[in-house]
């Protein structure tokens, strides 16, 4: 490529990133060369403590974690469970353990967020204290509160989908709710749950890509019925094209590996998923 051509591309790339700049970015040291964070949704290690989940995520090759409410923390906090109401005690311990293992916490969820602003603030205070990129929720009924706090705290709100017949299984419902709202409101795209619901994940992504803020990425053997999670690249979901599609729109969020199979011995398979994402990032950098 000629140097002049490259230079003419820089303003365009900067403009694209500016369009997606609402919401504090994930720190560069936690992102890949392709611009996103490889994270593990700690639900994948729900049979273990949060501290163990952080350790296992690091050993699997991830650079970040997505924390969920209610997991036993472990370490000096023992049996205490992740709870935003106990942020003063929990946040320093969680951050210290993440630092020890070169892991960045990037998202919190899936969590219920109340309509009541004072109660919702507890969750956003917790997220901000952890230095998170976003909060993942299915509380679409609290969208007015979520929009206000997303702007105030400069955090992404990522609406998550479980399978049919749960309330947000259809992406059209989320899009219709957020399309005229602050751009910080978007999707946490759970690829596997769309497949279980009979939706083609790539087709869905093509219709919502500009508003995808995060992923619960999965691989499945089928798009027409339930099948268990498996290492990326060994099933039928076109995760490469999915990532290509969102990156056209400046995606710079967390791609969380959520692995709901072989619960107590899944670390090698999660490591395969992390390796897949690292290889993709090198290929597309």
Can you give a write-up of this model?
Keywords: Isomerase, Signal. Residues 1-23 form the signal peptide. This is Sugar phosphate isomerase/epimerase. InterPro entries: IolE/XylAMocC-like (IPR050312), Xyl_isomerase-like_sf (IPR036237), Xyl_isomerase-like_TIM-brl (IPR013022). Residues 57-267 form the Xylose isomerase-like TIM barrel domain. This protein is an alpha/beta fold and 285 residues long. The chain has a single domain (24-284), classed as Divalent-metal-dependent TIM barrel enzymes (TIM Barrel, Alpha-Beta Barrel), CATH 3.20.20.150. 40% of the residues lie in helices and 14% in strands. The chain contains 10 helices and 8 strands. The protein has helices at residues 3-19, 50-59, 87-100, 117-129, 143-153, 171-178, 191-196, 201-208, 239-247, 267-284, and strands spanning 37-41, 64-67, 104-108, 134-137, 156-160, 185-190, 212-217, 254-257. It has an 8-stranded parallel β-barrel with strand order 1-2-3-4-5-6-7-8, surrounded by 6 helices. The model is unreliable at 1-20 (pLDDT under 50).
Measure the end-to-end span.
15 Å
User: Fraction of residues in helices?
Assistant: 40-55%
CATH architecture: Alpha-Beta Barrel
Q: Briefly note the structural class of the backbone.
A: alpha/beta
Low-confidence stretches: 1-20
Strand content: 5-15%
Order of strands in the sheet with most strands: 1-2-3-4-5-6-7-8
Q: What is the β-strand count?
A: 8
Q: What is the approximate shape?
A: globular
Kindly identify the CATH topology: TIM Barrel
The whole-angstrom Rg is 18 Å
Number of helical elements: 10
Q: So, the CATH homologous superfamily?
A: Divalent-metal-dependent TIM barrel enzymes
CATH C-level category:
Alpha Beta
SSE string, helices as H and strands as E: HEHEHEHEHEHEHHEHEH
The largest β sheet comes out as: 8 strands, parallel, barrel
**Count of the domains:** 1
Give the overall average pLDDT: 94
Organism: Haloferula rosea
Keywords: Isomerase, Signal
Protein name: Sugar phosphate isomerase/epimerase
Signal peptide: 1-23
């Amino acid at each position: 490529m000629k140097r002049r051509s490259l230079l003419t591309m820089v303003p365009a790339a900067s403009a694209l990133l500016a369009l997606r700049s609402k919401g504090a970015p994930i720190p560069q040291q936690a992102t890949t060369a392709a611009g996103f964070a490889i994270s593990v949704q700690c639900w994948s290690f729900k049979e273990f403590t949060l501290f163990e989940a952080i350790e296992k995520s690091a050993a699997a090759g991830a650079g970040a974690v997505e924390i969920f409410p209610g997991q036993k923390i472990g370490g000096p906090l023992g049996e205490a469970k992740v709870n935003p109401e106990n942020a003063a005690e929990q946040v320093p311990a969680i951050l210290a353990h993440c630092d020890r293992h070169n892991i960045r916490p990037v998202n919190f969820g899936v969590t219920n967020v109340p309509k009541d602003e004072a109660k919702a603030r507890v969750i956003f205070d917790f997220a901000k204290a952890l230095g998170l990129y976003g909060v993942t929720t299915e509380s679409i009924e609290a969208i007015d509160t979520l929009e206000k706090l997303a702007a105030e705290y400069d955090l992404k709100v990522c609406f998550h989908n479980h399978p049919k017949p749960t309330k947000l299984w259809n992406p059209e419902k989320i899009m219709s709710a957020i399309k005229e709202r602050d751009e910080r409101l978007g999707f946490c795209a759970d690829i596997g749950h769309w497949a279980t619901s009979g939706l083609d994940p790539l087709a869905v992504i093509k219709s919502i890509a500009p508003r995808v803020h995060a992923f619960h990425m999965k691989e499945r053997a089928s798009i027409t019925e339930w099948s268990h999670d498996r290492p990326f690249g060994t099933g039928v979901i076109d995760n490469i094209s999915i990532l290509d599609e969102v990156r056209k729109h400046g995606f710079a969020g967390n791609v969380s590996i959520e692995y709901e199979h072989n619960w107590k011995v899944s670390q090698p398979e999660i490591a395969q998923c992390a390796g897949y994402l690292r290889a993709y990032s090198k290929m597309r950098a």
